[in-house]
Amino acid sequence: MVIPYYLKMLYTSNTAWEEIDQSVVKTLFYMVLPLSLLPPVMILYAGFEYGESFFTAANEVVWISSAAVFLVAELITVMLMAWAIKNIAASRGIETDYRNTLTVTSFSAVPMWLSSFALFLPNPLFVISMVLLGLLTSICLNYYGTKNLLHMHEELEVASITHTTISLGVVAWVFLVTLIVIPLLW
C-alpha cells in the first residue's frame, strides 16, 4: 500500500478502496500485526526513557507487562471491531463478508497506531492532540471504508454505521488505555 493511495482513502470512496487486497490472512499478518506492535514499543520507550516522571511507582516489569497486555488487547479489539461492523450492518439488512469489515477496521486503526509515535516526546498535551488527530482520521477512514467496501450508497446509513462503530471504537480505546494506566498507578 503506497502512501498516496492511503491518503486518498481519507476523502474518497472509490478508486483507492477498490485496490485493496482483502485477504484476511494478508491483512492480519502484513498490516495489523506489524502496526499493532507500534504502540507497545512506544509504551516501552516512553516508560524506560521518562516514565518515572509521570508514574513514579512503575518499574520495568510493570511497563513490559502493560505493553504486552496492550498488544494482546489490541489484536483482539481489531477482530472484535470487524465482527461488530459486520453485525451492525447485518442488523440494517446489509450482508457483507468478514474480510470487508476487517479491512475497514484495520485501515481505520492505522492513524491510531501511528499516533503512538507522539510518545517520543514527554509532553502529555502533544500526545493527547496526536491521539485526537488520529481519531478524527480514523473516523474519515471508517466512513469511506464502510461506504465503499460494504457497497453502500445511502449516506445516512453509512453515517449511522460509522457513528455506531466509532462509538464502540472509542469505548474500546478507553478500555485499552485503562489497561495501561491502572497497573502504572499501583
Most strands sheet: none
| Measured distance between first and last alpha carbons | 42 Å
In the predicted model, the low-confidence regions spanning at least 5 consecutive residues are none
State the helicity in percent bands. Answer: over 70%
Query: How big a fraction of the residues is strand?
Result: under 5%
Report the count of strand segments. Answer: 0
Total number of helices: 8
Which class of secondary structure composition applies to the elements?
A: mainly alpha
Note the run of SSEs as H and E: HHHHHHHH
Kindly report the average pLDDT value: 87
Radius of gyration: 17 Å
Shape: elongated
Please give a structural write-up.
- This protein has 186 residues and is mainly alpha-helical.
- Helix content is 78%, strand content 0%.
- It has eight helices and no strands.
- The longest helix has 32 residues, at 60-91.
- The protein is elongated.
- The relative contact order is 0.15.
- The model has no long low-confidence stretch (mean pLDDT 87).
